[in-house]
Amino acid sequence: MKFTKIHGTGNDFVIIDNRVEALDEAQLGKLARTLCRRRLSIGADGLMAVDNPDNGGDYKMRFFNADGSMGEMCGNGARCIARYGFEKKLAGETQRIETTAGMVVGHRESQRFYKIKLNDASKLQLDIKTEINGKTYVCSYVELGDPGIPHVVIRIEGLSKLFADNLDIAGLILSGRVGENSFLEKLKELGRLLRYYSAFPKGANVNFYDIVGDNSLVEITYERGVEDFTLACGTGTGSVVKVLTELGESDGKNVKVRVPGGELFIDIEDGIYLSGPTNIVAEGYVTDEDLVI
């Protein structure tokens, strides 16, 4: 089985051409659980399978979380698969990608820089009060696409200081040593509790952010399916900026968002646009002897 591994700002994915492999949903879920295991296999935040289109797109993208569950869509994943689609000649510099959450349009800005139009917000609730361990947190809830990708957006004072102090947040996440920083450890626990909070029946990705300056933010996301912080979350970043524009705290123009894996950029125009770098890390053959599908 051939595979390609690509990451977008630290959000990493294993991609296979399922037009060749012809695996069903259950088999793809098992494949994701095995191949996404770090240290024991290739390692990734998720697996994406390219399939033939059904609704006029150039191709279909099916996304699976590292735990094998099927996701509606993934923003950075779509940027990475747009790179894959161009490199593999599945489409040109502009491509239409079918996802479970709806059609996504990708654009090649340069060799490594890709921009996509995220799914529109199908649900948006501002200023939701949640009670966690006796403390009230005010957050917003966004779903992108239909069925929607669920995101909680919550401002955390002091998060910008961690980034300003040049703490190696990415290193702590990748090594599993978040507990060495008490601020991040508490934030991770809050993310876990909000992820399963009763007001969000689909379960939610939890996006913590802080404002640095005009149209400049920092953000870190606790992702469902990964059940941990990730180095970036494209749909989460888009959801944060969408909320801030609705609240009048951003004009939504070329908003720079620093995440543990680097920088992403959001523009709110006729929709939500996400752009940032990609990196083709490896291509080869899966030889994992523990793989059973």
Question: Topology of this structure?
Answer:
Elements: E1 2-8, E2 11-17, H1 18-21, H2 25-35, E3 46-51, E4 59-65, E5 70-71, H3 75-87, E6 94-99, E7 102-108, E8 113-117, E9 121-132, E10 135-144, E11 149-155, H4 159-164, H5 169-175, H6 182-195, E12 205-213, E13 216-223, E14 228-230, H7 234-246, E15 255-259, E16 262-268, E17 272-277, E18 279-285
Tell me, briefly, the overall form: globular
Low-confidence stretches: none
Strand content range: 35-45%
Mean pLDDT: 95
Q: Secondary-structure element sequence?
A: EEHHEEEHEEEEEEHHHEEEHEEEE
Distance between the termini: 12 Å
Biggest pleated-sheet summary: 18 strands, mixed
Q: How helix-rich are the residues, as a percent range? A: 10-25%
Instruction: Tell me the number of strands.
Output: 18
Number of helices: 7
Q: Could you characterize what this model shows?
A:
- The protein is α+β, with helices and mostly antiparallel strands and 293 residues long.
- The protein is built from 7 helices and 18 strands.
- The chain has helices at residues 18-21, 25-35, 75-87, 159-164, 169-175, 182-195, 234-246, and strands spanning 2-8, 11-17, 46-51, 59-65, 70-71, 94-99, 102-108, 113-117, 121-132, 135-144, 149-155, 205-213, 216-223, 228-230, 255-259, 262-268, 272-277, 279-285.
- It has an 18-stranded mixed beta sheet that branches.
- The two termini are 12 Å apart.
